[in-house]
Structure formats: structure tokens, C-alpha cells
Design a protein that fits this description.
Elements: H1 3-14, E1 34-38, E2 45-51, H2 64-71, E3 75-78, H3 86-95, H4 106-109, H5 112-124, H6 137-151, H7 160-170, E4 174-177, H8 181-189, H9 193-222, H10 226-239, H11 244-262, E5 271-277, H12 287-293, E6 297-300
Parallel strand pairs: 2-5, 3-4, 3-5
Antiparallel strand pairs: 1-2, 1-6
Length: about 300
């Protein structure tokens, strides 16, 4: 598995797989998952895009409104710069934590239903189950997600984040990161076995239903329908309440952290362009909701 795809898959796991949005024609929209957020004093502004982390060549060009927001900005803010060279060493170090020791296998840790579900997924993509035997459950989740996304023709190197990071570097714009690799990986590596297995179950659910929801999710994203996106995105957690802790860990807790850090990027007289996964833009505990509660002016495009 290519390291760049593994890195991107980690980010997708943390966003509960909403990047399946990017599997249909084009990313141009009637409206957009783009907002303007102005400071209480109205002397600084951030454009915040609910981003898509993976895409295909045919998914470009983006809507000109999104490109214009970038062009109007003097710096960008991302969850993590996946093009940075320091990531490779850190990822390689952390992957060692994703392997089991002492002759215990992944299959020993799983209940029968979860094991059968994973076996079905692997059979669909012709991967021998022995490949996963030494993986901890969270590592199995990441690997399964990467294989699934690859089967859909998605490429992290074509993601919207990477698109704008490359443009920013070409223009010598400052790039700020909201999270570190250690923080994102730590969310997974520090999970107890119970939550880690729930994460794997979520991966299996996503794998088995991906064909049914891809078009619906993309249509919703293209027309900028936040309410419909929210309803479809949270449906799996309503149908499977045992995954609530996973949602809290991977989305809600990170929303609070990124909100606090974003507040430090309102520079007087400047505009910035922010790329954060679309899942963080919806719900009553979203990053945008926190800005509204704090007195910032939030405007949707």
C-alpha cells in the first residue's frame, strides 16, 4: 500500500469516511460547502471549506467561487500538511504500534459477526485474510479503508487539500496546520481494544454500503445542502448507537480543538483560506456552530 494513500486513509477514518463524496462527476456545485467567518471586530476573515480529502482527475476544475476564495487569501490553514516530508518518518514509526505481538492475531480479538464481516469485505477485493492477521483493529480499519477507496478509483494526491496546498506552495503562501501527525495517529493508537474494534466495525459498515450512498452524498455536497448532508452523515450513528463514543472521539472532540486553534488565525486586515473535512461543518457541535456561539459572523456561499 502506498504511504500517501495510508496517510490519507487515516484522515478519512477520523472523518468517518465522508470522502466517499468525491466519486462522482465533478466537484462544481450550485452552492458550496464554503463559508466566510469574520472576527467579532470584522477586521479579519477566514474562508472555511468543508473539504474532500480524495478525488479523481475528472473531479476538476473546482467551482470558481472556491478558487476565488483561495486567490483572495494571503495564507491557508489545513488539518495537516500531508505533503510535508517530516510525515513519512513519523508514519513509519507509528505503524509499528499498529501490529500485534505475542502470537495474538486480529482474528483472535474479533467476535464471530465482525470477523465474518471483515472476511466478506476482503473476499470482495481478493485480499487473503492472513494479510490482516497481525494488525491491531484500528490498523485493520485504516488498511480496509485504503483498499476500499482505491477500489473506487480515489487518490489522496488529487484531494482538494493537496490541490490547494500545492497552489499555496507555488505562491509561497504560509501554510498553518491545525493538528500534528502524532495527534491524529494518537487518536487511533491510544484507543482501548473495545473502541478500536468499534472503529473496525464502522469500516466494515462503510465498505458494505459504499455503493448505495456515494451518489446521494455527492449530490448533496454539490448543491451545498448542509441539512441533507447532516442527516445522511449521522444516520449510521443513529442506527448504530454503540458507535457514539467513536463519533465523539473522531469528530466532536476534534471540533473543539480545531475551533480553539482557528481562533488564533484571525490576523487583522488579512484573509485566510481554511480546509477542514466536511464532517466537521455539520451538526450542533460543528466548528461553524462554535464560531456563531462565540460572536463571529458566519456566512454561507
Amino acid at each position: 500500500m502506498r504511504l500517501s494513500k495510508w496517510i490519507t486513509s487515516l484522515r478519512l477514518i477520523l472523518a468517518s469516511f465522508v470522502i466517499l463524496l468525491a466519486t462522482c462527476q465533478g466537484l462544481q456545485a450550485e452552492e458550496n460547502f464554503l463559508w466566510s467567518v469574520e472576527s467579532p471586530g470584522r477586521d479579519s476573515q477566514l474562508y472555511i471549506l468543508g473539504s474532500i480529502h480524495m478525488a479523481r482527475e475528472q473531479d476538476y476544475p473546482l467551482n470558481p467561487i472556491i478558487e476565488k476564495a483561495f486567490d483572495d487569501s494571503s495564507f491557508i490553514v489545513v488539518e495537516m500538511d500531508v505533503t510535508a516530508t517530516h510525515i513519512i518518518e513519523t508514519i513509519e514509526m507509528m505503524t509499528k504500534k499498529g501490529r500485534l505481538e505475542d502470537k495474538v492475531t486480529l482474528w483472535d480479538l474479533l467476535d464471530d459477526e465482525t470477523a465474518r464481516g471483515l472476511e466478506r469485505c476482503l473476499a470482495k477485493i481478493s485480499i487473503p485474510k492472513v494479510v490482516f492477521s497481525n494488525f491491531k483493529p484500528w490498523m485493520a480499519s485504516i488498511t480496509l479503508a485504503s483498499l476500499m477507496l482505491h477500489s473506487l478509483g480515489l487518490d489522496g494526491e488529487l484531494g482538494v487539500d493537496v490541490h490547494f496546498i500545492k497552489k499555496a506552495k507555488a505562491k509561497n503562501l504560509r501554510i498553518y496546520e491545525l493538528e500534528t501527525v502524532q495527534e491524529q495517529l494518537g487518536i487511533l493508537a491510544d484507543m482501548d481494544d473495545n473502541l478500536s474494534i468499534k472503529l473496525l466495525k464502522a469500516s466494515i459498515l462503510e465498505f458494505e454500503t459504499k455503493g448505495e450512498e456515494v451518489q446521494a452524498m455527492m449530490d448533496i455536497w454539490r448543491r451545498g445542502d448542509v441539512e441533507a448532508f447532516e442527516e445522511l452523515y449521522f444516520r449510521v450513528y443513529i442506527e448504530h448507537p454503540d458507535l457514539a463514543e467513536l463519533l465523539n472521539k473522531t469528530i466532536f472532540e476534534r471540533n473543539q480543538t480545531m475551533f480553539e486553534r482557528l481562533k488564533g488565525h484571525f490576523f487583522p486586515g488579512k484573509k485566510g483560506f481554511v480546509l477542514i473535512g466536511a464532517a466537521h461543518m455539520v451538526g450542533q457541535d460543528s466548528i461553524l456552530a462554535k464560531f456563531k456561539e462565540a460572536g463571529f459572523l458566519v456566512t454561507k456561499y
